[in-house]
Design goal:
233 residues, eight-stranded mixed β-sheet, globular, alpha/beta
Length: 233
Amino acid sequence: MGILEQAVQNDILFEDFTIKTYTWNEGHEPILLIHGWEGQAGNFAELIEALIDVGYTVHSFDGPSHGFSSKGATSVLEFTQLVGVMIRRLQVKKLVSHSFGGVATTFALWQNRDLKIDKYALLTTPDRFTQRIDQVSAHVGISEKVKLRLIENLEREFDVVVGDLNVSDWVKEINVLQACIWHDREDKVIPLTQSQSVNETWPNAELRVVENTGHFRILRTKKVIDSVVGFLK
């Protein structure tokens, strides 16, 4: 049986989407896992099993138009709004994110500074929002003209200046007691320098540089999983 089939699954409504949520175990403390762009909750399978083994209740979800949530036009900023909704809904004090999930989570915490988080584990993180838009655009083959139109739409819809959206700025003001970032030295998707930039401006964070995991295998590497579980405990 796959990890998703082991979960209690529910649907919640968010904007125009039906969001698939997952809960594993009924342990002593809840943790929320936030996947990256083009990811889904199942990406955390090995970590979920490790957290269940030490007694946590584990929550996750598939973002708008991701995984088994309903499909439709969405945006990275809409994803961040959902993260804030989930943190508040589940009343969690511990978080784990992967890749773009770090952007969504830190922005959500910056927008909702009444939310208090005890421990936050980031398995890589971009820093500048514009850099992540560039990476996604290159990956899916979006032209420069279409990318600029996307940015204009985001700025108009959410009343933000995309160039001002930087994780290294948000983390200075969010309410997180202790954070830790794991990043592979040779990550080909998000350079180590981006996590280093975030870490430098985040007084309550530490950076653990790992090797031979890449950007995605870091989620399945036992030494990293053990390190994350140890940090959260």
